[in-house]
Amino acid sequence: MPEKLKTVQRVMSGHPVVSAALWHVPSAQGEAYARDRWFVPEDLAECEGFTHGRRIEEWLAARIALKTLLVEDGLAESPLHIHIRKNGQGSPHVVVYNPETGAYARLPCSLSHKGPLVLAAYSRLPGIRVGIDLERRSWKLPYLRRRFISEHDKMLEKDDQVGDCTALWAFKEAVSKLLGAGMAYGFANIHCRETSLGTCELRDAGGNHYAGAYGWFGRYALALVTDVYHGADADKEKAKRRERPWYERIVRARRLRDIRRLRRVSDQLAAVKAKNSGNGTSAERPKARRKP
Fold this sequence. Notes:
Layout: E1 6-8, E2 18-24, H1 35-38, H2 53-72, E3 82-86, E4 92-98, E5 103-114, E6 117-123, E7 130-136, H3 145-148, H4 161-179, E8 191-196, E9 199-203, E10 209-217, E11 220-227, H5 232-243, H6 246-279
Antiparallel strand pairs: 1-2, 2-6, 3-4, 4-5, 5-6, 7-11, 8-9, 9-10, 10-11
């Protein structure tokens, strides 16, 4: 493969869930990539229809960066055991084959490229989705702010309008990638609030919340968005629930159902009493009249 001018491994290395790498790849011919070393024929089916040489290079470089990251993390022995697929919505995920057990692991991933840079990331937890984006600073973005910025967006840096607009665009495109919606998703419906420098809280049109982080590499903004992660305590609780015997889970589910039912009846009785007291009537049942 072509020699990388600069590789920044472990971009945002402090992230608790995601591993990411940023590559600076020089312009080269697509034939310079040793495809047989990195891909099986099925992996290359998506790029067979590409006609632009630079588009092919970006496609190959982003996937090679992701495969390199997974091999270095010890999740696979060979790049040929790693396959990047898309679901029905177009969101990519990585499938890692373990030749010793014959099992497959499926992890969320995201890819982005802009100019000479490619960014690849994957989530170490199958239940936490990830979306990333690269965006170059552009003076055009402030003039397009009405198309993608809402009144709920808030960035801490007030003196750099171009930088704020660039970071916001990158965040919102990262959310659309996480959702698998692409550019069709209305960016103005995604709200972004920077809580501390480089960290943001995001919310989509459906009220779902996401966690975001961003940084700068020269004139490029790097945005990373994931589902909200509650830390190691949540993982321990999930593991504890999975370890319970099946009969204990059934008994626990029935107990919770009975508690909810009693709570619902109690709420209904309280509502009836409140209604009767408001009307000045008694909740007691009227006595039947005695026959003469």
